Amino acid sequence: MIKNATILWSYGKKDMITISQAQNSKAVMFHDLGSGHMVQANQHLIIKNDETMILDPGGHKVYTSLFSQLSSVVKSTSIKYLFFSHQDPDIIAAANGWLMMTDARAFLSELWMRFIPHFGIDQYVIDRITPIPDEGMLVNLGGIDLKFIPAHFLHSSGNFQVYDPELKILYTGDLGASLGAPWQETDDFDAHVQYMDPFHRRYIPCRKAMKMWANTARKLDIEIIAPQHGAMIKTPVAVEKFINWIDGLECGLDLMGDSFPVP
Ligand code: FE
Description:
This protein has 263 residues and is an alpha/beta fold. Helix content is 23%, strand content 29%. The protein has six helices and 15 strands. Mean pLDDT is 92; it is low at 1-14. The chain binds fe (iii) ion (FE).
C-alpha cells in the first residue's frame, strides 16, 4: 500500500520518490540503494533553485549507487551541502568520497568532529566539514533558510534534524525509523506504529529526550516526517499522532532495571 507517492522510476527494488515539490523546490528520496545485510536506509535530497543538499548519504556501497543515480535528478555541480545527522556508519562512512568527488561543504555535530577522521577523511578535505554547534544553526539553500534543529540523544548524543519550512518537511534521522514496514510512506499511523516501536524502545536512551523533541516539534508546522530508515509519515493528522506517541513513549533507561546482567 503506497499512498500519495509518485514513483518516478525503479531500478529493481531501488526506488526514487519525489516526496513533495513546489516551484523551484523539490524533496527527493532514494529508498533502497543498500544490499546484503545492510540496514535499509533512505537518502534524502533537498533541491532549491538548482542547489542541492544531500542528507545522510550512507556508506561506501550506497555511495557508488547514489552517486551514479544522482545525475538523473541533479547536476553533481549543484551539490552544495552534505548533512550528517550523526556519526553512525550508515550515514557518514563514505564522507571522504563525497568530499573528494564534489565541492560540497558538509555539516556534522561538533561532538563528532574528532571521531570521523577514523573513517578515512583526508586531511585536505576535513576543513570542508563545518561543526554544528549544540544549539543548531540555519543554512541557506537556494534562498531558503533550512533549520538544523538539535535532537540530541535521539539516538546519538550529538544529533540534528533538518526542517524545511517551505515544504514543511522535518527530516528526523533515526527518530521515526521503521523496520520491515511494507510501505514507503503512510498516513495510517495506527497501522505503522508496530514497525517503529521496537527500535525506539531500545535505541533511544530515555523519555526526557523524547519529551523535549515533542515540545520542539509542536512549535513547527510539519506535514511530513521523513526519517532515515523506513517509511515517511504524511499528513498533519498522522504527524500529530506521531508526536503524541513519541511524547508518551518509555524507552531505553526507563525500561531497564538497577543493574546489568553478568553473562
Ligand atoms: Fe544511528
